[in-house]
Amino acid sequence: MHEDGSAPERPAKASARLPLQSDYDIGALAAKGQSSTSLLPFSRRHAPLNPNCVVCGADNQKGLQLEFQGGPNGVAAVWVPTEEWESFRGTVHGGIITAVLDEAVSKAVIARNWEALTVDLRVRFRGRVSPGEELRVHGWVVEKRKRRVLTEAILVTGTGVERAHAWAAFLVPRG
């Protein structure tokens, strides 16, 4: 449900269940004898990971430096945007939000040990994202058919209100 009371639109194709916050509780996974998914388990020939990535790069002091955790149903990270990412006063720029969602779906693919490149990305903004607001971004794989990987990501508040939703398609490189 949107803040204005309207029902959210859904894509025509049904997607996998939305991940729950508990899916990414690393402490809870460890208590069950499970470990979190390593996001860097293999060599990436076509798209090597970059420590200077503007969204997740630990070496990029001007970037967002999001730290994604893997779980059984995808990946998640906490993000508190700052005023330096605003488009106009009180609203985070949609391009920054899109970059965060793109990173979440990319990390969901990487968590499966697949190397694939984004070929299509669609974002629906559902509400204002304000600086200082603690948000969670979740990304997951919906399905894989041959070389095509379909994914989704959501950006939600601490109370579960969806601020943005992304649908992306990836293509596994040949060879």
Strand content range: 25-35%
> What's the N-to-C terminus distance?
44 Å
> Could you state the CATH homologous superfamily?
Hotdog Thioesterase
Largest sheet: 6 strands, antiparallel
Given the helix and strand composition, which structural class is it? Answer: alpha+beta
Helix and strand sequence: HEEEEHEEEE
**Share of helical residues:** 10-25%
CATH third-tier fold name = Thiol Ester Dehydrase, Chain A
Quickly count the helices.
2
Ranges where pLDDT stays below 50 over 5 or more residues in a row are 8-44
* Spatial shape: globular
Q: Give the beta-strand count.
A: 8
CATH architecture: Roll
**Mean pLDDT value:** 78
CATH class: Alpha Beta
Spatial extent as radius of gyration: 16 Å
Write the layout of secondary structure elements.
Layout: H1 26-31, E1 69-71, E2 74-79, E3 86-88, E4 91-92, H2 94-111, E5 117-125, E6 135-145, E7 148-157, E8 162-171
What does it look like?
It contains two helices and eight strands. The chain has one domain (21-171): Hotdog Thioesterase (Thiol Ester Dehydrase, Chain A, Roll), CATH 3.10.129.10. The protein has helices spanning 26-31, 94-111, and strands spanning 69-71, 74-79, 86-88, 91-92, 117-125, 135-145, 148-157, 162-171. The protein is α+β, with helices and mostly antiparallel strands and 175 residues long. The chain has a six-stranded antiparallel β-sheet with strand order 1-2-6-7-8-5, covered by helices on one side. It has a two-stranded antiparallel sheet with strand order 3-4. The relative contact order is 0.19.
